[in-house]
Write a structure and sequence with these properties.
The chain contains 16 helices and 16 strands. The protein is of the alpha/beta class and 402 residues long. The protein has a domain of 247 residues: Aldolase class I (TIM Barrel), CATH 3.20.20.70. The strands form four sheets. The protein has a nine-stranded mixed beta sheet, with helices on both faces. The two termini are 14 Å apart.
Length: 402
């Protein structure tokens, strides 16, 4: 690398990023006190057919922006998508596929709450086209689940995992938290051991954090201190590695070949359409050989979304000065980091635009460049601080000092 400035790249790869589709389902049986997602407690009857119709209309109005491209992955998140029937989700997928084609090997994931899936339903979801499930376990301690506001019990997760295997959906993820109220290392390891006994293909293992605007932020439960949380994480990571689960992202672990393709596309700064209440999207377009990125946003409140879905989301261009931070915020979550060429093909900017923070972080032992640029072990511990070095003003200051 050389130089510390530059404008948008004049040579743009003719190959656009993979295109994913995120579908948001905003309702839950109850709102968990730690959750800051766009989810709403279901107080009346689920408007299943009306919401499915709105999602289809939403997709139809957005599709021209992605004309000629195919969907490589679909992620149905929430909220609780498993509140919707297999017939409804199967019909939705059929309609979406008729609007924009799906790749033959398209990964189609549905998030599920173990307490909301009736017996035998996973086989029906599989028949409807879903080939991957993400199951919210969080913990296997009944009292801890109660403290987290979860509506399921450990037995629900055991049953769900058994049914997933029986339904041919062995490619499933378990969400598991650590550093929970009153938890110690033994408790965290016990949760992990139980989770692994269910033979998931993928594990999302992450620390409970107090997010602004949540009930837990207003009334914090007694959580382990930072040092204890690090000890839990280290002990659990060692077990995961010994059991054949490779860490490929900050909180993602997978058996060989079972990484979540949808999330990988996010972290590699790929493109995605977002449909549903509060959903976001990002699309790449080229003009006169230059690359530009646009983002979409939807109304968050479900009733307002239902009334406006056919109008589509609001689209705005991503300012060029924001691209280094947005790219780093995603790509540096990956253990393998990113190749310099990926930065240019995804942002349209020369790698020289981020040379100053890269070199400074390398000198501080927080990043390394043996091949791809990636955070060191220490850098991953301080990842929020590392990523902030790519904010527009920070980059300008670093370039001025170099």
């Amino acid at each position: 690398m050389s130089g510390n400035g530059g404008t948008a790249a004049t040579v743009v790869s003719s190959v656009l990023p993979d295109l994913s589709l995120y579908v948001h389902f905003p309702w839950c049986v109850a709102k968990c006190p730690y959750c800051d997602f766009n989810s709403h407690a279901l107080r009346d009857a689920l408007p299943e057919s009306a919401y499915i119709d709105a999602l289809v209309a939403d997709m139809q109005v957005q599709a021209p922006r992605a004309a000629g491209r195919a969907i490589t992955s679909v992620f149905m998140g929430g909220g609780t998508p498993s509140l919707f029937s297999p017939a409804a989700l199967g019909g939705l997928l059929e309609n979406l596929r008729s609007i924009l084609p799906f790749e033959a090997d398209c990964e189609i994931t549905m998030e599920a709450n173990p307490a909301t899936v009736e017996r035998g339903r996973f086989a029906e979801y599989h028949a409807a086209g879903i080939n991957r499930v993400s199951l919210g376990a969080q913990s296997f301690d009944g009292e801890t689940l109660k403290a987290l506001g979860r509506i399921h019990q450990p037995a629900d997760v055991f049953r769900a995992a058994e049914e997933l295997h029986a339904a041919g959906l062995s490619n499933f993820n378990l969400d598991l938290m650590f550093a929970l109220p009153g938890q110690d290392i033994a408790g965290a390891l016990a949760d992990l051991t139980t989770a692994l006994s269910l033979e998931p293909a993928h594990l999302s293992h992450y620390q409970l954090t107090l997010e602004p605007g949540t009930l837990f932020a207003a009334k914090p439960p007694p959580l382990p201190d930072e040092e204890s949380a690090w000890d839990m994480q280290g002990a659990c990571h060692a077990v995961l590695a010994a059991r054949g689960f490779a860490q490929y992202e900050v909180s993602a672990f997978a058996r060989s070949g079972r990484q979540c393709l949808h999330n990988l596309n996010y972290w590699q700064f790929g493109d995605y359409l977002g449909i549903g209440a509060g959903a976001h999207g990002k699309l790449t377009r080229t003009e006169s050989g230059d690359l530009h990125l646009d983002r979409s946003t939807h109304l968050r409140e479900p009733r307002r979304y239902l009334a406006s879905a056919a109008q589509g989301p609001a689209w705005k261009p991503v300012p060029e000065e924001d691209l280094p931070f947005e790219f780093a915020m995603n790509a540096l979550r990956l253990n393998e980091g990113f190749a310099e060429a990926l930065f240019t093909t995804r942002t349209g900017l020369p790698i020289a635009r981020i040379e100053s923070p890269l070199r400074a972080l390398e000198q501080q032992g927080l990043m390394e460049s043996a091949g791809p640029w990636r955070a060191t072990a220490r850098g991953r511990q301080l990842l929020n601080d590392v990523v902030q070095r790519f904010l527009p003003g920070t980059i300008s200051e670093a370039a001025a000092r170099s």
